[in-house]
């Protein structure tokens, strides 16, 4: 008998060993710190398309820049410190340059010692991999279209004065890459190459303003010309697009004014000493506004035909004449000293008035267009605001284009017209209910005359005017249709009236009137507007007489044109004489892809449409090389390259997340179709856990916000998130993750969530993947609100975690959104809140959808996150819910990170909360031991010891 058992054991052991070998370990938060990935904002393609670069490295620690040759496997790696930055290529693609920052250990040490840190610059010659390094670099630039030069601007000396009036100039090195010769320019505060790279404009800002001025250097001859010298400061060099003219600002101290007086300088017809210079300050002109001056915050610019200078103006406050000042402290003291008898009562009274302590207060008036808190938050912006103006050179005509009511003005292409927006009559009400309106003006830039073309134009849920490249046409959305307007004649045309499709966004369920679909802008020749309905993209003639669908009735397939790739840097509008690429998406099955509209053709041809996410289509500016990005739930974003305009035969160039293969990973994703309790057909995505086995059910996290299924095929990068939850971490650790769509009914945001989420959970349970006894829910911000509300209406969840939730719709309605300084009223009545009007006329809806009013029904344990400096959802919302649950003896823990805003920003705090949230869910759904902070809490006196112990454990 024993022999039989032994034989059976020998048979079983190899099978068991094989199974164990296949089981990869789950990803832990410690591994996330080491997780190696490409930083998505660092991709650079060389102009000739032969080189692609990116930065990669661990979540915490030092990074590398990789430069790879696309045509083969040649690649070079360079350490770049703790901060990622993209590579910049010379125009001829022979050189690459990038910054190297301080190492991670140096950055951490510097935070304690306050020691300054400096960047290096590395210049690499391609393909020889010869490297040149420059120390203490502030910024750098190649000489635009001229591949010969690299300008390197160095940081100020460590002991340089930090005073605001101290000189800003430092060394600028001009490095000639072919000869390796260097030319140093001292005391340079600012520099800029023209487009051709043939002229360098730079500003000298030296000690005592000695030699200050604006200079140009001919990069071919090396000849330097001083265009102007003065005891003044200069800034804001701005070349025109062609690179044959530039404008800048100049400031001088003036005894008549409190602040420096600015002038705008225009340089054109550049020819060394013979260059033309125009200087304008406006102070001597009769029609220049009193108490105004050129603004130092605007960016001056030339018109396309170089007939006009554009710039900003702002209030110029004069100094008060001290000889007439009865309030001068010194004069008051002199007067009181002369009267030793005590008879000068008036002077004593004036002195007392000067010395009196003033109250520190704010007056809130019901007529304020903006709340005092909004004015305080936006005070710096208001102080720096400048009103767009122009100066026409030929007839010396000044025109103020923007003013205190018509604040927003955009200069159109060709500088023929500008469009101005004036919401002053509607600003107060717009800040109250969010239903935005504006008056719209067309400004003739030749005459400066303004004509109102729309009064009380509705702006909520739609874009403003889109101008054509010729500057003579514009398109806009109004009342569910799109129109064009001829700015010369004022004639309007309905562009979509003859198209049998809706141009109201069918998925936008906010409480705004007829939110519009997307306006893709104009064709490069200004003949056509390109406008999308809910699915198809239409090419419509400017007068609306002809319309062609470029996507041939994709509505029948539930397929849409989602967006456009911009591959031609000089393109104005959409050039239909060139190949154009679009992202495409199927709303029904969530497949995504890339479509090509070939030059001169009328139909977008899908190149890919499958279970991936495609984006980032880009063409090399000077080469026939195309790249795009591809990702899905199980594969991180990778770059593919090809020489084919059809994107065929593309090969993978990058290798992202190389450590993923070591760990257990999600085994796929299911798309679930279901009916909400309101009878709406909806969808949810269910991500399978690692090591998923058919027929086995798993603990599940339901993650909610609004509509999430369109992101079904996105990759979840393992990171320490600002809200605690990371999908990849949970699926790797054996959880399924459910993400349902939520469709909202007006005045029922909370009840809508219940009607959508609960049926989604039941549909997911029906698949057999989800263990109905081990389902939790989590959301942050709006998702946190819905989480807090759902547990008052259902007991389907065993645990819940709510981040930064609003919990009392009535108190929240009138609280301050501190990040902007406005109230939440507009958010409720025209945005996410979806409640209208105020609670005084809508009491039932506000209470019906507030977690706090149903708090007695809560039976689900809750983990709350609410930070004390939350500028979006007031901290009191979390406190109110926590204290209510605590008073009712409901299981609840609230975690607050001091000084943090709506999301968690500091890495130690992000790490801490991510670990705690998983500890909580592991306890509630996996029967692991309860963490001490949940089971019994941590006394204040023991907190430091508790945090030190956890930090050590999580290293």
TrEMBL record:
Keywords: Hydrolase, Signal. The keyword Hydrolase applies. Residues 1-21 form the signal peptide. It comes from the Bacteria. Residues 758-926 form the Peptidase S9 prolyl oligopeptidase catalytic domain. Residues 320-344 are annotated as: Disordered. It holds the Pfam family Peptidase_S9. This is Prolyl oligopeptidase family serine peptidase. It comes from Pedobacter gandavensis.
């Amino acid at each position: 008998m024993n022999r039989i058992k032994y034989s059976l054991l020998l048979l079983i052991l190899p099978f068991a060993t094989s199974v164990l070998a296949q089981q990869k370990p789950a990803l832990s938060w410690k591994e996330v710190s080491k997780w190696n990935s490409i930083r998505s904002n660092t991709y650079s393609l060389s102009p000739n398309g032969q080189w692609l670069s990116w930065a990669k490295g661990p979540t915490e620690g030092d990074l590398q820049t990789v430069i790879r040759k696309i045509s083969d496997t040649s690649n070079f790696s360079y350490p770049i410190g703790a901060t990622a930055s993209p590579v910049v290529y010379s125009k001829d693609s022979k050189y690459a340059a990038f910054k190297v920052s301080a190492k991670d250990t140096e950055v951490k040490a510097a935070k304690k010692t306050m020691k300054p840190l400096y960047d290096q610059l590395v210049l690499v010659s391609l393909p020889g991999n010869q490297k040149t390094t420059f120390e203490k670099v502030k910024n750098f630039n190649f000489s635009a279209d001229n591949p010969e030069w690299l300008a390197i601007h160095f940081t100020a000396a460590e002991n340089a004065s930090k005073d605001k009036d101290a000189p800003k100039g430092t060394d600028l090195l001009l490095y000639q890459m072919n000869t390796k010769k260097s030319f140093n320019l001292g005391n340079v505060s600012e520099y800029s190459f023209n487009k051709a790279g043939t002229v360098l404009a730079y500003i000298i800002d030296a000690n005592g303003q000695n030699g200050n001025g604006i200079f140009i250097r001919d990069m071919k001859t090396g000849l330097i010309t001083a265009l102007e010298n003065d005891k003044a400061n200069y800034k804001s060099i701005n070349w025109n697009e062609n690179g044959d003219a530039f404008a800048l600002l100049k400031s001088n101290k003036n005894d008549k004014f409190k602040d420096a007086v600015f002038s705008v300088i225009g340089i054109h017809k550049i020819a060394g000493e013979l260059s033309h210079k125009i200087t304008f300050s406006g102070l001597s002109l009769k029609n220049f506004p009193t108490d105004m001056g050129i603004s130092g915050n605007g960016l001056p610019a030339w018109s396309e035909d170089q007939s006009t200078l554009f710039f900003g103006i702002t209030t110029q406050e004069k100094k008060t004449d001290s000889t007439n000042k009865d309030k001068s402290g010194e004069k008051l003291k002199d007067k009181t000293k002369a009267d030793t008898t005590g008879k000068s009562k008036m002077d004593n009274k004036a002195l007392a008035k000067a010395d009196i302590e003033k109250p520190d207060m704010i007056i809130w008036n019901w007529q304020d267009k903006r709340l005092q808190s909004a004015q305080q938050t936006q005070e710096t912006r208001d102080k720096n605001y400048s009103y767009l103006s122009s100066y026409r050179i030929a007839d010396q005509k000044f025109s103020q284009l923007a003013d205190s009511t018509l604040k927003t003005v955009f200069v159109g292409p060709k500088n023929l017209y500008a469009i101005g927006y004036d919401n002053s009559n509607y600003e107060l009400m717009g800040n109250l209910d969010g239903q935005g309106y504006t008056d719209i003006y067309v400004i003739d830039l030749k005459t400066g005359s303004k004509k109102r073309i729309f009064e009380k134009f509705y702006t909520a849920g739609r874009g403003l005017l889109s101008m054509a490249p010729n500057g003579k046409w514009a398109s806009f959305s109004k009342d569910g249709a799109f129109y064009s307007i001829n700015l010369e004649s004022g004639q309007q045309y309905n562009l979509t009236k003859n198209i049998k499709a809706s141009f109201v966004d069918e998925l936008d369920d906010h409480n705004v009137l007829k939110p519009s679909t997307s306006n893709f802008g104009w064709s490069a020749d200004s003949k056509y507007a390109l406008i999308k309905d809910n699915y198809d993209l239409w090419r419509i003639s400017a007068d609306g007489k002809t319309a062609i669908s470029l996507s041939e009735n994709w509505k029948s397939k539930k397929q849409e044109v989602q967006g456009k790739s911009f591959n031609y840097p000089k393109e104005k509008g959409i050039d239909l004489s060139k190949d154009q690429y679009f992202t495409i998406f199927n709303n029904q099955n969530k497949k995504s892809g890339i479509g090509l509209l070939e030059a001169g053709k009328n139909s977008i041809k899908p190149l890919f449409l499958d279970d991936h996410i495609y984006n980032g289509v880009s063409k090399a500016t000077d080469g026939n090389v195309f790249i795009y990005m591809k990702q899905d739930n199980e594969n991180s974003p990778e770059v593919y390259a090809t020489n084919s305009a059809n994107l065929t035969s593309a090969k993978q160039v990058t290798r992202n997340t190389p450590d993923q293969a070591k760990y257990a990973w999600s085994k796929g994703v299911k798309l679930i179709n279901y009916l909400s309790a309101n009878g709406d057909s909806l969808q949810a995505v269910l991500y399978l856990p690692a090591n998923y086995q058919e027929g086995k059910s798993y603990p599940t996290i339901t993650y909610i916000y609004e509509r999430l299924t369109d992101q079904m095929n996105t990759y979840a990068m393992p990171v320490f998130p600002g809200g605690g939850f990371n999908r990849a971490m949970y699926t790797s650790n054996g959880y399924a993750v459910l993400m349902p769509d939520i469709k909202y009914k007006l005045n029922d945001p909370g009840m809508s969530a219940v009607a959508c989420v609960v049926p989604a959970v039941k549909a997911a349970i029906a698949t057999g993947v989800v263990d109905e006894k081990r389902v939790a829910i989590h959301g942050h911000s709006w998702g946190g609100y819905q989480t807090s509300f759902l547990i008052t209406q259902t007991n389907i969840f065993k645990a819940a975690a709510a981040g930064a939730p609003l919990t009392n719709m009535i108190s929240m309605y009138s609280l301050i959104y501190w990040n902007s300084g406005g109230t939440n009223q507009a958010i409720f009545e025209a945005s996410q809140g979806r409640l209208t009007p105020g609670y005084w006329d809508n009491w039932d809806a506000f209470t019906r959808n507030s977690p706090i009013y149903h708090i007695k029904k809560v039976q689900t344990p809750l983990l709350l996150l609410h930070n004390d400096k939350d500028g979006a959802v007031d901290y009191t919302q979390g406190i109110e819910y926590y204290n209510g649950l605590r008073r009712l003896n409901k299981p609840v823990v609230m975690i607050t990170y001091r000084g943090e805003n709506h999301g968690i920003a500091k890495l130690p705090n992000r790490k801490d909360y991510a670990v705690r949230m998983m500890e909580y869910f592991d306890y509630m759904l996996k029967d692991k031991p309860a963490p001490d902070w949940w089971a019994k809490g941590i006394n204040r006196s023991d907190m430091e010891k508790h945090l030190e112990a956890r930090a050590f454990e999580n290293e």
